[in-house]
Fold this sequence. Notes:
The chain is an alpha+beta fold. It has helices at about 25-30, 45-60, 70-85, and strands at about 1-5, 10-15, 35-40. The longest helix has 17 residues, at about 70-85.
Amino acid sequence: MVSDMLSADLTYYANADVPMEWDHLQRLRGVSEGDVVRYALRKREPLAVELEHFCRAVRGDSTARLVTLEEGARAIASAEWILRAAQPGDPS
Length: 92
C-alpha cells in the first residue's frame, strides 16, 4: 500500500503469484508486482479546508476541528527534526 500525501493518492500493489523461470532475475527485482489498484478519494485543497475550519471555529461552530497548542508544538518539533536530519553529516 502506498499513500502519497502530496497528491492524495492511495495505491495498492498486490504481490504476483506468477513463478519466474529465471531465478536470478527474481533476486534482482525483489517482490514482483501483481495487480495495482488506485483508490478514488475525494481530494480537496488542504489550505482551503484549513481556512473553512478556521472560519467555522471563529463563528462558534463546535464541530470545527481545531488543533491544540500541544499538537501544533509536536508538528513543529517533528518538522525541525526532519530538517536537521536532512542536513549532511547529521547522525540523527
